[in-house]
Amino acid sequence: MAASTALNYDVHLWWDFQDAFNTLVLSAWSHIPKLQDVLKPATSTSTVNFGLDRIPNDFYGFGIFFLVALAILTVVWLISYGALNVLWPRFAAIEPSHKKWYVIANFSKALFLGGQCLSLAWWSYSYLHHACAFNPLLRAANMAEFQPCTYNAYPLQESWTKTVSATYVITDALALLMVPKLPVSTVIHHVSTAIFVLLVFSIPLQEYPVGQKLMLYGFWSTISF
Question: Which of 4, 71, 151, 153 has its CA 20 to 30 A from that of 87?
């Protein structure tokens, strides 16, 4: 286990988008009255794992993480809307004006998913989660197969994965609340991802193949965006 723990932390020594975002969300959470008591006490390793061990490993804990992240992003969107109206003439000229929110939502989604794709830890965990999906093709070609997929190879791996899922979905959820006149197809997608992330929060991923397939969908969707 010691070797696994060291390897887990090694992949986070590079700059990692999710670790930075988790730190921001947990910092905000720790200052919210009544909710701060839900966080677990900090331990000697909380700094190393960016506070993941402080999130209760249940639906309630990750649900609060999601809501705090949603509140932070709401403030960012409001500030961005005002700043872009003043500093970017082409943005200010967009008509009808409600399409400005659509632009902000798409920029936000691109930045979040781009941040994931530039993160060493995200790629490292994605390999553990999804590489075995190629085994049937490798078997058919009589080639060496990947190791079985796992969601518990490292301490707090599942917690980290669920914060990734929350980060993926918050822009979709906020778009439902703040972007007027979304296309029906977009609304269906955003509602679906919101429902699916609630499912992910409520199950141990290692034990539920359906949850693992949702993660696989999120992986390819992140890259294609």
Answer: 71
Residue with tokens 């009544």: 34
d(CA 166, CA 65): 8
Residue 44 one-letter amino acid: S
| Chain centre to alpha carbon of residue 108 | 13
> pTM for the full model?
0.89
pLDDT digits (tens, 9 = 90+) for 31-44: 999 898 999 988 76
Q: Using only the alpha carbons of the chain, give its radius of gyration.
A: 19
